[in-house]
């Protein structure tokens, strides 16, 4: 008996069937007029996925599972949104351009923009109708979903940023020889990073080596301290005394770190003040060679650096786990899930990086902008590699989902969209917009009129059904009244469509003035009608 | 109440949108297509609920005097007696707040031509008491749904549902309790059966003088007959919060059913010569008019005047307590309690009472009942046995040699796991009560309580 909680957004079956059926038929018809077939189908599927994600993020029963799924689905939704917009533009661009003459540019642009809007309208309509079936568009859910997507984006964003920085650093370092700003930054980087990771051979580097050693030892000691090693050993009498061993190792590491930290400034003073010759004289021959070999070995530096990283990662991971086990599974799940989802998305993006970049290049190569794309994309790919580029594109696509969710949230928060009828309003608005833009394509007039009337019918049946669900409930017998009401709306729409056909017929036969004058006249008429209606109301 | 709904005003925005797109793309069809949204705006603005709209409603209740826990069919017929068709009529029947609808919906939305009728039918769960239906709320909308009129429509026909338990028609006295109210005792006096003889004392009734013996021996002797005293019967109703559980929303609680069974027995007994006292356990002071006794019990002694009225008050109090509980209980659908522990002593009661199974009980209610019981009485305990308290009471009574009966309404309905567990626990409790020496009546709610009482109480009262 969950009717009590969801009564306000539920509608009776007949209204729901009207909303879904009319939307499905009209979307199918309208998408048929778009020449970018694949983008259109992806757009429609994205609408369903977006609604599903919204529902999942508010799934109270399996909160953690719902959040993980919503988070992982953010990638298909993001890709779908990008394909529906960018994909349509690219496909149609390849098809419509280049135009034969200058005069053909404007119609081509209008056609392209209209088709993209038709696809977006259908996406919105499918999303709205799907969302209306469960009443999932409310401000709380949209807010939750926005949070999930933002947290999902954090991981790919950070990874992309890190990869980008690394690529940039490598690029700048490799460009240290070419003149200009690149040389300056490259030299600075080389100077900073060289002594740490790539020391000059044949001399001592005790100070920097000691510092690195101190860091590595401290991090390793912390990591060891954090790991539950003694808890993992079985509590039997003959078990080895691992506690003592771990304690000893930890103490050793701490002392090593402290000594190295103390030795660093002293050694630095000696190295700077005395110079290598004096040091070689001061120290016995064998010892000096050993110090040179140890402190200048790049492999050892690398090892220390990785030890530092692993110690830090271990202690951070254990801290996270400790926090995690102290709160409920569902809470942990729903808080961590988006990050896990973000990780999955990052891995997926990296895994398909090569083919994805290839596909994008191929799609772009077919457009008239191919040369410009080549000039821009090829060097970027060379510098950053396909992984970074794919991740960056993924992050941009995820940002588009965040932006769309944000717009939806703002519309709900400012009550432009009422929570109760948000789904059907979106469906109707999408259908209406798509039908209007379809009129500028070679769409048959009847389909345009059916789309416009159908959009009104969808909204009317949906909002009527929602009111009915609220006032009478979904358990009552309401079919007859719903059918009568929808019949009335369709009949009025038929009158409107007939009026439209009549008006356009009269206008076509009777326009003896310049088209601009006719347009102006129609606008004046329209304003007059609006004023009249306002007065009546 | 008349109201206009501005639901088509979005059409203006749609028209503006079409004009913009038309100007942007130089598409004249879209300019002409502004006719579509504008005609909807006009449609919404011009439609009005027709004057002279008239509706009539009639209600029929299938069983105006049902027993508690029984679903009652209600039908509401709505007729359009006006001259114009109504495309959208919504009606909500004024179901009393206390009654839960268990089947169907008391709401309807339909279209009605002149003189056409529509019927909505639903079932409510009957509860003790009289409940009056409110007027039906009716809302009429136009076809465009932009104009609506809301009225409270008075309904003809059945206006109330009475679920009473006065049992004047129940043939209980002659069929079930042949010797109810009489218990032979071992003291001589007036009666029917010979007991003993003794020497005459001044003031002895003349008809009990043994005249034959006087004729023979010239001594006055008085014959004593076995005295037949009316039995005191104490009806203990378990109305403690653990007993106020209900298997499904709208169904009477265990406490209410117990009170109902007790009331029926009380009515039956009051028409025989049995002296019946009534005691309700676990009520709060605000539930009982006049408050509770100093020992926390609502006790009505048969000896006082207006005992029947006072007993009725106590039974009603149980219903009030259950209603109060369901109001404060936010969940509203309390499951059968699986809390097996009896309520523990809150005060500094340190007295311990021995039960038949050797345990000790420190429950203040239990102690109060035991303290208040007259030395000779038959005790009938009414409890849903949702916790161990009634078993403790029954075994404590058994230790004190009170003939005891436990009447327990079965609250386990449905197939859920929780219901099965609660049912098993209850069966175990009833078995323990039976083992401690009490007569146990397991009242399955599908059969009337009279049948259960008839089956078992005849034994008790013919001791």
Q: Can you count the helices of chain A?
A: 19
Could you list the spans of chain B in which at least 5 consecutive residues all have pLDDT below 50?
Answer: 166-183, 330-351, 459-463
Contiguous helical run count of chain B: 11
Helix content of chain A: over 70%
Give the strand order of the largest sheet of chain B, numbering strands 1, 2, ... along the chain. Answer: 17-16-15-20-21-22
What would you report as the Rg of chain B, rounded to the nearest angstrom?
Answer: 33 Å
Tell me the Rg of chain A in angstroms: 33 Å
What is the residue-mean pLDDT of chain A, rounded to a whole number? 82
Order of helices and strands of chain A: HHHHHHHHHHHHHHHHHHH
- Average residue pLDDT of chain B: 78
Tags for this model:
heterodimer; A: 537 residues; 2 domains; 19 helices; disordered N terminus; B: 463 residues; alpha+beta; Immunoglobulin-like; 6-stranded mixed beta sheet; 5-stranded antiparallel beta sheet; 11 helices; disordered C terminus
Fold and architecture overview:
The complex is a heterodimer of chains A (537) and B (463). With 537 residues, chain A is mainly α. Chain A is 83% helix and 0% strand. The longest helix of chain A is centred in the C-terminal third of the chain and has 44 residues, at 370-413. The relative contact order of chain A is 0.14. Chain B has a six-stranded mixed β-sheet, with helices on both faces. In chain B, α10 links the parallel β21 and β22 (439-443). In chain B, α1 (10-25) runs antiparallel to α3 (35-46), α6 (254-270) runs antiparallel to α7 and α9 (389-399) runs parallel beside α10. Classes of the chains: A mainly alpha (537), B alpha+beta (463). At the A-B interface, α16, α17, α18 and α19 of A face α1, α2, α3, β4 and β6 of B.
């Amino acid at each position: 008996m969950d009717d009590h909680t969801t009564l306000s957004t539920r509608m009776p079956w007949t209204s729901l069937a009207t909303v879904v059926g009319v939307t499905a038929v009209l979307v199918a018809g309208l998408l048929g007029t778009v020449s970018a077939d694949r983008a259109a189908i992806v757009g429609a599927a994205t609408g369903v996925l977006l609604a599903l994600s919204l529902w999942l993020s508010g799934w109270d029963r399996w909160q953690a599972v719902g959040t993980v799924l919503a988070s992982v689905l953010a990638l298909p939704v993001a890709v779908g949104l990008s394909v529906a917009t960018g994909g349509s533009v690219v496909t149609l661009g390849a098809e419509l351009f280049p135009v034969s003459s200058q005069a053909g540019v404007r119609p081509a642009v209008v056609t392209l923009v209209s088709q993209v809007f038709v696809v977006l309208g259908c996406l919105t309509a499918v999303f709205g109708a799907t969302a209306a079936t469960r009443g999932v568009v409310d401000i709380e859910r949209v807010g939750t979903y926005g949070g999930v997507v933002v947290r999902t984006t954090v991981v790919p964003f950070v990874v992309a940023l890190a990869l980008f920085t690394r690529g940039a650093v490598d690029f700048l370092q490799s460009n240290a020889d070419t003149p200009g700003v690149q040389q300056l930054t490259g030299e600075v980087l080389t100077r900073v990073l060289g002594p740490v990771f790539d020391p000059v051979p044949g001399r001592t580097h005790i100070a920097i080596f000691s510092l690195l050693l101190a860091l590595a030892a401290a991090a390793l000691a912390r990591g060891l301290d954090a790991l539950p090693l003694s808890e993992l050993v079985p509590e039997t009498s003959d078990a080895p005394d691992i506690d003592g061993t771990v304690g000893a190792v930890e103490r050793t590491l701490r002392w090593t770190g402290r000594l190295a930290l103390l030795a660093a400034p002293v050694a630095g003073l000696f190295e700077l003040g005395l110079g290598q010759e004096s040091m070689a004289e001061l120290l016995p021959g064998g010892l000096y060679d050993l110090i040179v070999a140890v402190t200048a070995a790049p492999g050892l530096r690398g090892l220390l650096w990785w030890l530092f990283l692993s110690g830090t990662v271990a202690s951070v991971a254990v801290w996270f786990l400790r926090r995690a086990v102290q709160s409920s599974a569902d809470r942990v799940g729903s808080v961590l899930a988006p990050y896990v989802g973000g990780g999955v998305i990052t891995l997926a993006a990296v895994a398909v990086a090569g083919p994805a970049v290839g596909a994008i290049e191929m799609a772009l190569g077919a457009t008239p902008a191919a040369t410009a794309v080549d000039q821009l994309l090829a060097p970027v790919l060379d510098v950053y590699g396909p992984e970074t580029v794919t991740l960056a594109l993924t992050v941009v696509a995820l940002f588009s989902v965040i932006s769309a969710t944000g717009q939806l949230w703002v519309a709900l928060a400012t009550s432009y969209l009422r929570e109760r009828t948000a789904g059907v309003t979106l469906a109707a608005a999408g259908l209406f917009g798509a039908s209007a833009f379809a009129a500028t394509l070679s769409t048959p007039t009847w389909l345009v009129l059916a789309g416009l009337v159908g959009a009104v019918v969808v909204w009317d049946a949906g909002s009527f059904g929602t009111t009915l669900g609220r006032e009478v409930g979904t358990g009552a017998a309401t079919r007859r009244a719903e059918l009568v009401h929808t019949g009335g709306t369709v009949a009025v729409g038929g009158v409107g469509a007939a009026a439209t056909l009549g008006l356009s017929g009269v206008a076509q036969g009777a326009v003896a003035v310049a088209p601009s004058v006719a347009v102006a006249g129609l606008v004046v008429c329209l304003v007059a009608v609006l004023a009249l209606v306002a007065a009546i109301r | 109440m008349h109201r206009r709904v501005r639901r088509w005003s979005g059409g203006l925005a749609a028209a503006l949108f079409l004009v913009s797109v038309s100007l942007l793309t130089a598409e004249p069809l879209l300019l002409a297509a502004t006719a579509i949204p504008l005609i909807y705006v006009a449609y919404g603005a011009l439609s009005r609920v027709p004057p002279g709209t008239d509706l009539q409603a009639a209600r029929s209740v299938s069983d105006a005097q049902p027993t508690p826990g029984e679903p009652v069919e209600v039908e509401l017929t709505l007729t359009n007696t006006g001259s114009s068709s109504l495309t959208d009529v919504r009606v909500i029947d004024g179901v009393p707040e206390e009654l839960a609808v268990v089947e169907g919906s008391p709401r309807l939305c339909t279209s009605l031509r002149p003189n056409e009728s529509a019927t909505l039918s639903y079932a409510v769960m009957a509860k003790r008491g009289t409940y009056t239906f409110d007027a039906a709320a009716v809302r009429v909308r136009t076809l465009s749904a932009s104009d609506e009129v809301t009225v409270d429509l008075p309904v003809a026909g059945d206006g109330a549902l009475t679920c009473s338990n006065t049992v004047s028609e129940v043939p209980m006295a002659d069929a079930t309790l042949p010797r109810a109210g009489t218990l032979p005792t071992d003291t001589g006096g007036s009666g029917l059966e010979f007991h003993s003889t003794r020497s005459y004392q001044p003031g002895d009734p003349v008809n009990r003088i043994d005249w034959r013996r006087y004729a023979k021996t010239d001594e006055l002797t008085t014959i004593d007959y076995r005295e037949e005293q009316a039995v005191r019967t104490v009806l203990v109703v378990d109305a403690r919060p653990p007993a106020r559980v209900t298997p499904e929303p709208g169904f009477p609680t265990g406490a209410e059913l117990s009170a109902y069974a007790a009331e029926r027995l009380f009515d039956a007994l009051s028409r025989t010569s049995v002296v019946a006292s009534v005691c309700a356990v676990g009520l709060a002071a605000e539930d009982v008019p006049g408050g509770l006794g100093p020992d926390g019990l609502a006790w009505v002694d048969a000896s006082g005047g207006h005992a029947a009225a006072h007993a009725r008050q106590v039974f009603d109090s149980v219903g009030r307590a259950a209603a109060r509980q369901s109001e404060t209980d936010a969940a509203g659908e309390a499951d059968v309690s699986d809390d097996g522990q009896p309520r523990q002593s809150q005060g500094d009661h340190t007295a311990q009472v021995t039960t038949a199974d050797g345990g000790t009980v420190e429950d203040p209610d239990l102690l109060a009942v035991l303290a208040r019981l007259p030395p000779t009485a038959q005790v009938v305990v009414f409890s849903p046995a949702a916790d161990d308290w009634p078993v403790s009471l029954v075994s404590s009574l058994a230790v004190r040699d009170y003939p005891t009966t436990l009447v327990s309404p079965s609250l386990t309905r449905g197939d859920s796991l929780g219901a099965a567990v609660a049912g098993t626990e209850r069966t175990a409790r009833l078995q323990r009560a039976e083992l401690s020496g009490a007569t146990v009546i397991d009242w399955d709610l599908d059969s009337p309580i009279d049948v259960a009482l008839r089956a078992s109480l005849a034994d008790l009262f013919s001791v």
